[in-house]
Input
Amino acid sequence: MEKDVSDANPPRRGGRPSQLQASQIRERILDIATDLFLTQGYGETSIEAIAKRAGISKRTFYHRFDDKADLFGAVAHRLIMRLRPSHAASLFTGGTLEEILQRLAKVILRAALSTEALALYRLIVSEATRFPELAIIMDTEGSRREAVGHIADLLETQAHSGNVSNVAEQFLQMVVSVPQRRALGLGTPMTVAQLDAWAHDAVHLFLHGCR
Output
């Protein structure tokens, strides 16, 4: 049986773990929860199972998370932050609107088709009916709303008329929908070359197709 990771390093005077130890415990919980959520599902994963695998008490768990939904929100947030490019701000500057959208389309596809992103998407689709809080968490923690806002701002600066938020949503849908479906098994997954061509054609159609 694993020992409580809070015992791996002797606590400071007073019996409380140091800030580093507390952070390590939290990260271990998140690592284990991520693996269990994405492989077993949200409904089949219990706090007891997470605590047992982490080698901690439930009391230690509840010192860090309110409940399983709170833990899932932290897992989703960490996954999304890992998928976010470090140079995100620079993606929206430099070049024509078409060049900027081409860059964005490729980055968006790489993130949306990553192994963890696809696993998270499967989890939400399969369990959101039983656990509607998952959809609410993803809407709060997810990067889609942020991406829509940035793209809408970009379109607005280019004197685009109409509801730029709706147009930004349509752009994301055009870029991601079919490649994501194929990556999930509804068709043959696209190669890197095919994804690049798809991104190029989606941007071109978005900007010029209805003229």
Summary: Residues 106 and 196 are 7 Å apart (CA to CA).
